[in-house]
## 1
Amino acid sequence: MLHKIPIPTPFPVGDINVYLLKGRDCLTLVDTGPLTRDALEALEHGLGAAGVRVEDLDQIVLTHYHCDHVGLVEHLVEKSGAKVLAHPYTEPLIARDPDVEAARGEFYLQLYRGLGLNEEQKETALKQILYFLDYVGTAHVDTALQEGDRLPGHEEWEVLYTPGHALDHISLFDRQGRRMLLGDHVIKHISSNALLEPPLRRGEERPRMLMLYREALRNVQALDWEIGYAGHGEEVTGHKELITKRLRDMERRAERVLETVRAGKSVGMDITLTLFPRHFEQLPLIISETIGHLDWLVHDGKLKIEDDGGLWRYEVVEECLK
Ligand SMILES: [Zn+2]
């Protein structure tokens, strides 16, 4: 049995859906809602409607480390003793390791320098990233879930590694029942974003999130399922068409990014503000969108980067016409 429980969030995205899986001997909550009193009340109420108390929970699965999905985990573990199950990449994040957080800060600063953010823009962007940490608790991953694993206590659900929206993102697939638990991998009413993330280890190359996302979208598109339970909004049906549309929208945006560079914008931040002139309050998001597409164009050989004393200048690679 699967119960959907909508939970309010203080974020522009609106409600998040968490899911209660009732197995024969196992009660599992998929995602938690943010760390707010309203969210906890809604969760307790939703669990109650399914005849369950927080104390009864055996397991908490986290689809990815974003505050609306993991915020209440510490509180719920304290109250229930539930085990936490997530991708191994979730552990260093949710443990709130100070070294990891310092490395993240450094990473963003260096990146913002390359993209040409001024001091005020850097400060605004970092503040917007840190703001979300007010809505998460600390926890540890007890059981790592990787591609192909079965969800303990609910063996019909198979784990899929679906990076892109987040590097630690997993989805759950019930092949027999033709159902998916999607987290934020696919959302019906909005396109999910491939958010920038630092590399797993300091000094490594950062992951190309949009490209990972496209690949993971295609993987999920190829699977046979009828209904997808998403982290936000209504259930996803007709996923093959929906994912085709999402992929096409990205291609169109890449085309616009290329045009913007061709029109003379060479610095990441200028390109970002040309594409998204009215979204300054969501700076990390619009930077992620822009750089995701820039990465992709560079990878495809349509753009190249010149390092101008730590500032990256994007240039169109003109094809040789013979
Ligand atoms: Zn998310």
## 2
Amino acid sequence: MTTRVTVHRIDPDDPAQVDAVLDMDQLVWADDLRTPREVALADTPTRAAWIARVNGEAAGIAASWDVELSVPAAGGGASLRPVEGLTWVGVHPDHRRRGVLTALIREHLRWTRDEQGRSISVLKASEPGIYGRFGYGVTSSTVMSSFGRGTTFAAPSAVREVADATTLRTTTASPDQGRRWHALARECARTGAGHIVRSPQDSERLLADNPESRGTREPARLLWATRERRDVGAAYFHRTPKWTHGKPDGTVGVFFLVSTDAGARLALAERLVDIDLMGTTEYWVAPDDVLALWLPSPRSLGGSGVSDNMWLRIVDLPAAVAERGHAADVDLVVEVRDEILQDNAGAWRWTSTGADAAVTRTDATADLTLDIGDLGAAWLGGQTLGARAAAGFVTEHRPGAVAELDAALRTAVGPVGTIDF
Ligand SMILES: CC(C)(COP(=O)(O)OP(=O)(O)OC[C@H]1O[C@@H](n2cnc3c(N)ncnc32)[C@H](O)[C@@H]1OP(=O)(O)O)[C@@H](O)C(=O)NCCC(=O)NCCS
């Protein structure tokens, strides 16, 4: 029997539809329902949310956050672009594996491209096996790290001097710091690719305390780093106290840590790994994070290994290419496979000269063939097309073509790990 799935975008002003989204989310994610309904409703993403129905019955949901992503800029660093952050994806247990998610994703991708005019969709995945089939690639990775109390970071003296000139101040996180946080996050995002900056409204909401949903943890704190009266970094963390055999053994959980420079990062990290009554600080770093480089080797990071951080899907290839800086001139023909968005598929002449890059339709013979997901993986500098060619995903028809495109897409530093959304 074929299942007919329909997808419609909810009306954010219709309480019944918003209720339906929240009910589905709480069911799918086994929510403990301790958060008061009005608080949960205020956190429900209504800006863009979809409900999938099977025979008229609600079967699944998806939503999208309005976020900015830092992408590689011409000449180095990064620039912010508006993208869509897919979120709140869930399918009713009675309707699993009948194409409900597939219908929701197809609609999200179409809407992102055709109605929002945005070139990229990003997400954080609950499980690794879900999103590759929809053209998303793992664009950044994270090392799930755990720092013991008093961890020493062997930063060079020039960095330490900047850290010493940085002032730290602990506050309790609160919505009235949202605009300040947002402004700092935008500034930090220009230092490298892979940052997600939430909207000002969402930043405010994220900093609100909800006692029912934080369990045994304290209210979240914001540690601000300033220098010469300017914000140069901030960390969002909370402590969970614990006593083991009479000794203090609490955990510091760090959810965001952003900085405009290495000195601010060092100052923040040294404070976070040396908080009284705490034994361990958990913070997941990107492989190229300076915090990892200031330790003797990756083995010193502790934790539980490497995981995917963010997935990226190009929905409008010409726009995405024009919005991304290229590190070298290139002129070649790429055959792109995209089974969902046919406008991306086919042969493209890919050129970049100085600060300008473009793809244009061509009938010429392809120099290489790849999947749209291969580009998602390489877009922020987290993977090379060469590695994906070695794995058999990218096919080279002219020797050297893969290396030429890799040189153009190269970034000085790998992508950062980003906040959850
Ligand atoms: C993950 C989830 C959304 C999938 O929804 P679904 O409607 O069952 O997915 P579909 O039927 O559209 O599946 C499409 C394909 O993805 C595969 N797939 C779906 N979920 C998968 C998973 N967790 N791991 C691996 N493959 C998965 C299906 O087998 C199917 O493969 P096929 O095309 O080869 O037949 C659903 O199981 C769910 O709600 N899980 C709990 C919440 C969650 O993890 N949400 C994702 C948040 S990032």
## 3
Amino acid sequence: MSRSVAGQLSPVRRASDLRRLRAERFDVLVIGGGVTGAGAALDAASRGLKVALVEARDLAAGTSSRSSKLIHGGLRYLEQLEFHLVHEALTERGLLATRLAPHLVRPVPIMVPLPAGRGLNRQAREVTGVRVRDLEAPPGSPDAEFEVQARTVIAATGVWSDDMSRMLNDVGLRPGVRVRASKGVHLVVPRSAITGETGLILRTASSVLFVIPWGGHWIIGTTDTDWRLDRSHPAASARDIDYLLQQVNTVLDRPLTTADIEGVYA
Ligand SMILES: Cc1cc2nc3c(=O)[nH]c(=O)nc-3n(C[C@H](O)[C@H](O)[C@H](O)COP(=O)(O)OP(=O)(O)OC[C@H]3O[C@@H](n4cnc5c(N)ncnc54)[C@H](O)[C@@H]3O)c2cc1C
């Protein structure tokens, strides 16, 4: 944020940014540093708007650091016959692969083995800023809590959106969106555990399961089950792991066992 110490993420830069958050008024304030918030902030900044982003933990600390790493084209929407969404997703994917991020996005051949035989209700009053707390300020510090002013506030808080809704309810505003938190579990196995170069897509009883080549590993996932515990720390159960192994083994020559598993994330 600060031009004088631009580009360096350091305690000096942090102190300078906090000073600016307190003192200045922004065009756009984004709450949440996941892919949605970072994207919204980048988009607004690239249009010349003055942007601030506040994050409760760390950049991509939420769902964004735990995805299947796929830029898929709306496969699940296709199943639901949501052709408009599929068209939009494919258009975005094409842009990412060719213009926006060809250095990050590369095509992976994927096979589909076949068995033989869904914002805020903007009717709401305007939100013109938020109260933030600096979690690294010394205990009891009078400066730890302060207000940030902005013409527009974007809540990009992912599975924490219902917390945001409760805050809006507390000030008499009516949020228009509810989010159901669900858990997705991935297994990581070495490349040697599965012969081949091609990714796989399987339709399971409760989700779409991908087997994706990822450097020296394969990523196998995901489950999709309701999660009502700590949203910051979703955890994989033995049952989730057994389910994934069972599903992927239906199409593998050499079945995977728990001994093949290098890592699990949820
Ligand atoms: C198992 C699984 C696999 C997936 N795989 C893929 C995939 O392969 N490809 C794909 O495109 N998508 C995938 N997705 C979807 C994708 O990961 C999510 O849509 C995306 O990461 C959501 O990003 P977000 O920024 O909305 O939320 P998040 O990444 O969760 O970010 C929200 C942020 O808001 C912060 N926050 C919350 N409350 C506050 C507050 N009060 N103040 C300040 N900060 C706050 C949180 O700390 C968090 O950092 C997958 C999702 C799951 C669950």
